[in-house]
Amino acid sequence: MLVIVVNNAPPRLRGRLAVWLLEIRAGVYVGNYSRRTREMIWEQVKAHIGDGDAIIAWAMPSDAGYDFDTCGVNRRVPVDFDGLKLVRFSPLPAVIDQATP
User: Fold this and answer.
1) Model pTM?
2) What is the DSSP secondary structure assignment for residue 30, as one 8-state letter?
3) Backbone angles phi, psi at 67, to 5 degrees
4) What's the CATH number where 45 sits?
C-alpha cells in the first residue's frame, strides 16, 4: 500500500499523480506499486512540488509496519529515534509586530 498526501501542489503535479494513483480525497492519493515505481513517483513529486509540501507512506516489513518520507516546508519533520521513525513538530515562527516602536 502506498499513500501520498500533498498540500498546495501545482495542478500539473496533481494531474501526474492522478495518472498513477487514485485520488480518494482532495490531495490524498493511494495505490499499490513496487519499490521501484514508488521511488519513481516520489521523485516526480519532489521535482514538481514547488511551494507545496508532501508526505509519502508505504507498507514495510518493520516494527512499525510502514515507513514514510516528506518533502517541502512543513512543521512536521521525521526523526529517527533508536531505529523507530517518529514525527517532531517544529515551533511556529515568531511573529514580529511591526506596529510597536
Assistant:
1) 0.84
2) E
3) -140, 165
4) 3.30.70.240
